[in-house]
Write a structure and sequence with these properties.
About 10% of the residues lie in helices and about 40% in strands. The protein is mainly β and about 450 residues long.
């Protein structure tokens, strides 16, 4: 409620602060400012300044108590002690004394900025032209905090027709922006944004946004809805003329000694792993085709394919399969080799005993399986290696440290558990989320 009241109080009419004579000091470019951060907070106790133009303010509601500033060298996020006071297009001098240069979830920011005491407004309506970039350039991480424009892009099929965020529940949402080569980046929108309940466009076109970051994810923050112009035809999905291979055929070829997927071929299937809850590395994905057979994919960067998305993977050149700790996978897949085909239908899990799952690992590896009448032991919470036991034997249940449910209490008693049958030297089961466990 406090956030709602504060965001609702942002307005254009502010009392003029008392004039304040700024002392002489050292002027830094924003690039030089960023270079001062080496992993620990930098508290400014001396007279330093930066100059720049505000490229995004918090009036839209898409950011809170923040503004982005940019000069000819770089950009950075200003974290304000109170919302409002500076606006897009303001040319300002920022007095750094009393501010803190720090990183929040890998987003570099200048914190504790007081608009009255640290900001000297020099001019207004000095708008910055966005730097025209493509998705791979932005994902390089070189443009954090800067205003960018992308052309010939579109939102994923699964996101079109959805709202940018949950305005009623005031929840921030991620939407996936793609180019015609399959490269993808997150567009993150706050539930407080004025356009949160606007529908994600279905066409292709251009977008202007500020580059931000949250942990590993480079992402985009939209300033205004009129900077999302997508009325053109969607990109054609490549691979229609490529040979469609089944996952069973790939696994059979590997078993017979042929580890090479031929050029100009493709596979299609539904994502059975759950990126949202994170019980696998961010580069990994488990894909199952219509037969229910599955395979592990490992991309060269974090992907953005959610559970239940139908995906096409194209192999323009010959591609090798390999095993890692016993898990067959297609490794080193460029992010642009996979394409969103829209919502798919998850295959039903195969009901097995633990002994059957272990003995038929070659057949059921990387597929959805269901184990009935099992118990979990080895701890009290979901954490790394636990033991599943049924009347036929035992198997590991593995939870990654970064999974959303890591550390949650374990259920007791006889359970039915659905998960992905995987391998790390020994067979193991990866649940997608706690909804995979029932009594």
């Amino acid at each position: 409620m406090a956030m709602v009241m504060l965001s609702g109080c942002i307005h254009d009419d502010f009392e003029q602060p008392e004039p304040w004579d700024y002392p002489q000091g050292t002027v830094l470019t924003i690039s030089e400012l960023r270079q001062l951060f080496s992993g620990t907070p930098v508290i400014f106790n001396a007279d330093f300044y930066i100059h720049g133009v505000i490229t995004m303010d918090d009036k839209s509601g898409n950011i809170y108590r923040s503004a982005f500033i940019e000069d000819h060298t770089a950009g950075i996020n200003l974290r304000l002690v109170a919302p409002g006071g500076i606006y897009t297009g303001d040319s300002v001098r920022v007095y750094l004394k009393g501010t803190i240069l720090d990183s929040y979830q890998r987003m570099l920011q200048l914190d504790n900025v007081n608009a009255d005491r640290n900001i000297n407004k020099i001019a207004v309506m000095k708008h910055v032209s966005p730097r025209v970039l493509d998705i791979p350039a932005i994902l390089s991480g070189k443009y954090q905090g800067q205003l960018v424009a992308l052309e010939n892009v579109q939102f994923s099929v699964a996101d079109t027709g959805q709202t940018f965020a949950d305005k009623q529940g005031l929840r921030t949402m991620n939407r996936t922006l793609q180019d015609c080569d399959g490269n993808a980046i997150i567009v993150r929108t706050s539930g407080y944004a004025y356009f949160a309940d606007s529908l994600v466009p279905a066409g292709s076109g251009s977008l202007v946004a500020v580059v931000s970051q949250f942990q590993q994810d480079i992402q985009l923050t939209i300033r205004r809805l009129d900077e999302v112009i997508m009325t053109g035809d969607r990109c054609a999905i490549p691979g229609d003329d490529y040979q469609l291979l089944t996952i069973a055929a790939l696994r059979n070829n590997f078993r017979e000694g042929n580890a090479v997927i031929p050029a100009n071929s493709r596979i299609e299937g539904v994502v059975i792993s759950d990126r949202e809850h994170g019980n696998h590395p961010g580069q990994n994905l488990y894909l199952a085709d219509e037969s229910g057979r599955g395979i592990a994919l490992r991309f060269t960067a974090f992907h953005h394919f959610d559970l239940g998305t139908r995906v096409r993977v194209v192999f323009s050149t010959a591609t090798s399969m390999s095993t890692f700790m016993g898990l067959l996978q297609i490794d080193n897949l460029p992010a642009g080799s996979a394409f969103d085909l829209g919502p798919g239908t998850l295959p039903p899990p195969v009901t097995l005993t633990i002994a059957e799952a272990s003995e038929q690992m070659d057949k059921y590896q990387s597929t959805l399986v269901r184990l009935d009448n099992v118990t979990i032991s080895g701890g009290t919470t979901f954490t790394r290696n636990l033991t599943l036991t049924d009347a036929s034997g035992q198997m590991l249940l593995y939870t990654y440290d970064w999974a959303s449910f890591s550390g949650e209490p374990l259920p007791s008693g006889n359970l039915s558990i659905t998960g992905i049958l995987s391998m790390f030297t020994n067979p193991q089961l990866l649940i997608r989320n706690t909804g995979d466990i029932s009594r």
